[in-house]
């Protein structure tokens, strides 16, 4: 057993019967050992560990019991993990990369940012929205909404990790924040200020730390429509309301005009919160997942035993050398400009079924378009959420794939030329920085893009494709360079003809 020299137990000297009597030579060696110990202690700048000798078994057992007692006491102080946890605090190492992507700018929803000073002015706005919500034609009264939250308080509490808040405050927060969101979804922007406010709050509602459990919104909405005189079209679920008035705006911000349909047949399981619902629209459909599972990678990647691999997040330009086929083709992320040198072409997927609807065939890489406006907040929070979720990290794999394509501003410009990247504001450097930071300090899975990356690497490694690309880039990159090459060829032909006719009389004369 190793114990530090400075521990109190070490002040006890071992009894003399533990060690036999030493000779003079052995005593000198012991003195040398003490000197060596002092030198070592000076070098390491502190105590060093060494084996402890015990006079009897009782002392050792007593010390073991003390250590066990300390550990058990610490374990008893550890709070139990919430049974239905789905709303987390973003790890500090991710927040440091881009704090603005995770901290609300306008309004706090839920308990994590409720006390933030810069958000306090919005509490008055929330109360105004609550007043307008209660003024709508609905039999639901304030006490009905509070009662609905009181009935769900224990379940809602289990959705948050590291939560320490008084029960009454928590109930009030759920009721006020939930009704605020519902009023925001139901309200038609009648004025310019309403439209601006909705647009500004939109980004805050997608943040991981700024979520309410989805069943809280559903319960409040059911109180709102219960026994009301709304027509049948209005008596939908809160999911329908969100899919109509919120999800399309998020999808448009992320993908532009060629967006994924917000009415597509997604999973019917209840989402955890707004962020989780948006994610369901961006990941492959269940039937697509089954189709991908049926396509065995063994047909493509010889010795690979599993398609699921995790890439090192600290090394963006990595190569999975362990995944080789019979031709020793590894899996590698290459930038867009590097792929262009391999005779690759880029094409925008105008009708994507998900963010991972990425295809490669005959040298053409087809991927969904990227709109770099408010994209940063959406993708950062989706990636952060997937680090905790038990579901597969689809968005993280997509972000890693695009991060591999974009390594510098030149890559952004190349993808812009091909219509894949759209930037409303911001320069190529900012776009490159955005995607280069997305998957820092995260676990990057490789499954759905595994075969695509393998096929791309196999195509890139064929010399003919690089020779062809070099010819096109160096000599046929612009119309003027093309004209120059043709002029040079014509001059060469004319020179040959001139030389032939000049030498022709001499040839005839010699004959």
Could you describe the 3D structure shown?
Keywords: Membrane, Transmembrane, Transmembrane helix. The chain crosses the membrane at residues 480-501. Pfam families: DUF247. The N and C termini lie far apart (107 Å). The model is unreliable at 1-22, 25-29, 294-308 and 312-326 (pLDDT under 50). This protein has four domains: 2-77, no CATH class; 92-245, no CATH class; 286-468, no CATH class; 478-510. Helix 6 (167-186) packs across helix 8 (214-225). The chain has helices spanning 24-44, 57-77, 92-97, 122-134, 142-157, 167-186, 192-204, 214-225, 238-245, 247-255, 274-282, 286-294, 336-340, 375-386, 394-405, 409-417, 428-438, 450-460, 463-475, 479-510; strands at residues 2-4, 49-51, 309-311, 319-320, 331-332, 345-349, 359-361, 364-368, 370-371, 421-422, 444-446. The strands form five sheets. The protein has a three-stranded mixed beta sheet, covered by helices on one side. The relative contact order is 0.08. By secondary structure, it is mainly α. The longest helix is centred in the C-terminal third of the chain and has 32 residues, at 479-510.
């Amino acid at each position: 057993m190793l114990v530090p020299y400075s521990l109190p137990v070490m002040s006890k000297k071992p009894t003399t019967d533990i060690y036999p009597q030493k000779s003079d030579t052995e005593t000198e060696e012991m003195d040398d050992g003490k000197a060596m110990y002092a030198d070592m202690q000076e070098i390491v700048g502190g105590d060093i560990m060494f084996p402890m000798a015990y006079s009897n078994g009782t002392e050792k057992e007593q010390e073991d019991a003390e250590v066990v007692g300390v550990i058990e006491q610490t374990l008893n102080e550890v709070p139990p993990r919430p049974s239905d946890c789905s709303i987390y605090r973003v790890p500090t190492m991710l927040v440091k990369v881009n704090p603005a992507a995770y901290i609300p700018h306008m309004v706090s929803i839920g308990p994590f940012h409720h006390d933030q000073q810069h958000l306090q002015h919005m509490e008055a706005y929330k109360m105004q929205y609550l007043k307008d919500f209660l003024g709508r034609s609905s039999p639901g009264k304030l006490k009905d909404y509070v009662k609905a939250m009181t009935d769900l308080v224990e379940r809602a509490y289990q959705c948050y990790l590291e939560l320490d808040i008084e029960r009454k405050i928590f109930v009030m927060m759920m009721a006020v924040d939930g009704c605020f969101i519902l009023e925001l979804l139901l309200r038609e922007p009648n004025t310019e200020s309403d439209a601006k406010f909705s647009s500004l709050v939109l980004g805050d509602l997608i943040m991981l730390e700024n979520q309410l459990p989805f069943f809280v919104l559903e319960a409040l909405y059911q109180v709102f429509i219960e026994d009301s005189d709304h027509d049948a079209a209005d008596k939908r679920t809160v999911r329908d309301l969100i899919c109509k008035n919120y999800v399309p705006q998020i999808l448009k911000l992320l993908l532009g005009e060629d967006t994924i349909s917000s009415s597509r047949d997604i999973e019917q399981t209840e989402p955890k919160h707004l962020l989780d619902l948006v994610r369901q629209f961006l990941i492959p459909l269940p039937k697509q997942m089954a189709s991908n599972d049926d396509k065995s990678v063994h047909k493509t990647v010889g010795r690979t035993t599993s398609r699921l691999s995790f890439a090192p997040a600290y090394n963006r330009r990595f190569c999975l050398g362990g995944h080789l086929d019979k031709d020793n083709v590894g899996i590698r992320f290459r930038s867009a400009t590097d792929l262009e040198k391999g005779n690759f072409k880029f094409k925008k997927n105008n009708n994507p079924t998900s963010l991972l609807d990425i295809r490669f065939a005959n040298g053409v890489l087809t991927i969904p378009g990227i709109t770099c406006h408010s994209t940063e907040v959406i993708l950062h929070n989706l990636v952060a959420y997937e680090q905790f979720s038990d579901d597969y990290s689809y968005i993280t794999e997509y972000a890693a794939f695009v991060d591999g394509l974009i390594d510098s501003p030149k890559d952004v410009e190349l993808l812009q030329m091909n219509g894949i990247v759209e930037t409303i504001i911001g320069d190529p450097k900012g776009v490159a920085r955005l995607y280069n930071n997305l998957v820092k300090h995260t676990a990057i899975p490789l499954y759905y893009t595994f075969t695509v990356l393998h096929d791309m690497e196999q195509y890139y490694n064929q010399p003919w494709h690089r020779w062809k690309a070099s010819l096109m880039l160096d000599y046929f990159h612009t119309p003027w360079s093309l004209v120059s090459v043709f002029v040079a060829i014509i001059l060469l032909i004319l020179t040959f003809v001139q030389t032939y006719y000049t030498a022709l009389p001499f040839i005839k004369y010699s004959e």
